[in-house]
Design goal:
By secondary structure, this protein is of the alpha/beta class. It is built from 9 helices and 15 strands. The protein has helices at residues 28-40, 62-70, 89-104, 123-132, 209-223, 245-262, 271-279, 287-290, 302-305; strands spanning 16-24, 52-55, 74-77, 113-114, 137-138, 142-143, 153-155, 177-182, 185-186, 188-189, 197-199, 227-232, 266-268, 310-314, 317-321. Strands 1, 2, 3, 12 and 13 form a 5-stranded parallel beta sheet that branches. It has a 4-stranded mixed beta sheet with strand order 4-5-8-7. A two-stranded parallel ribbon has the order 6-9. Helix 3 packs across helix 4 (123-132).
Length: 341
């Protein structure tokens, strides 16, 4: 783990990365609610910002997951039923992985990330992730970007800092998992003269919302430490609650437009793209090549991913799938009833 820029690239030549992540159910209405933010957060090459979706299965539409992946975003795992780690961690993680991979048609090599529900983890849950051998990275450990400005790192030697969301965890104890990456969740900070931790997820609707976002971004930009906006798409639905969603949406849009106007070396990337850059860092001047030539913007062919869409209605659950319908709703005990993985 290191606080230094990978490749020893000078700060003024390092691209500023922003990751947008959305947790929980992936549905047409949540996609629609967040889409204006995504569309306005364009990269210097003109491509729409990709999102990393940590999809829990209980309230997801599998065809919607496929659509987001085909549009250039990343799909990651967030358990089958979005329950705390204390109950059946391995079954919850494994079943979510298999159901998402098969019913949404996500390739194995692209379904490699995990986030704990409620950001609630332990050495035992990390062990479950590690034992499954399906994941390249985990991203639930919240850190203060001022006191612990660590870049994403492998867990070869554990976690070398105290997490803001795991008070009972002792650094480096129980979290040694060689080869598994940790992408820290950088806490947003207040705009006070001495900034303090504000929140790890879902920027709060308070009077300093916009200024806190700007202050947090400037803290990262000074070091070119990756900046993250970790959210739940449901917060942007008019019914979640109706008085808060429009304000939250407007302030986040103002922040996105402020970044676009004032910073020309910002690149929105998925978590996978961030790890790819860390493994093969290039200066900001080479980011166009790094992100890929052509006009596809990471898009994939829906015809090959989803040759036939099926409408499924099983056990009171309705969803669309690209690979047929199970005979019962996917569950932690049987993620693909009547199907093969």
């Amino acid at each position: 783990a290191s606080t230094s820029i990978p490749g020893n690239i000078p700060v003024d030549q390092t691209p500023q990365f922003i990751t947008l992540t959305l947790d929980d159910g992936v549905q047409p209405r949540t996609i629609e609610a967040f889409m204006p933010i995504q569309v306005n957060a364009t990269n210097p090459n003109g491509c729409t910002a990709p999102v990393t979706f940590f999809a829990s299965n209980d309230y997801s539409d599998y065809f919607s997951i496929t659509q987001m992946y085909a549009n250039g975003s990343e799909i990651a795992v967030h358990t089958m039923d979005h329950i705390s780690y204390v109950r059946h961690a391995t079954a919850q993680i494994s079943s979510s992985y298999h159901a998402t991979r098969v019913l949404s048609g996500i390739p194995r090599e692209q379904l490699i990330g995990f986030r704990h529900p409620f950001l609630s983890f332990s050495p035992a849950t990390f062990q479950s992730i590690y034992n499954l051998k399906s994941f390249v990275y985990e991203s639930s450990v919240a850190v203060n970007p001022i006191t612990n400005p660590y870049w994403p790192h492998t867990l070869d030697k554990g976690i070398p800092y105290a997490s803001t969301n795991c008070a009972h965890c002792q650094q480096n104890q129980g979290f040694v998992f060689p080869g598994l990456w940790e992408i820290p969740m950088y806490a947003l900070m207040t705009s006070a003269p001495t900034p303090q931790v504000w929140t790890s997820m879902d920027p709060l609707n308070d009077n300093d919302f916009l200024e806190n976002l700007k202050t947090s971004f400037k803290i990262h930009y000074a070091k070119k430490l990756p900046f993250g906006l970790y959210q739940h798409a449901g917060n942007y639905l008019p019914t979640w609650p109706s008085t808060a969603a429009p304000k939250r949406f407007a302030i986040l849009m103002n922040f996105i437009l402020w970044v676009k106007q004032n910073y020309k070396d910002v690149w929105y990337v998925t978590n996978i793209q961030l790890l790819q850059w860390i493994s093969n860092p290039v200066p900001a001047s080479k980011m166009g090549e790094f992100m890929g030539a052509g006009n596809s913007c990471g898009a994939k062919s829906m015809a090959s991913l989803c040759p036939s869409v099926k409408s499924c209605n099983v056990g009171g659950k309705s969803f669309k799938s690209c690979n047929g319908c199970p005979t019962a709703p996917p569950s932690s005990s049987d993620p693909l009833p009547g199907m093969t993985s």
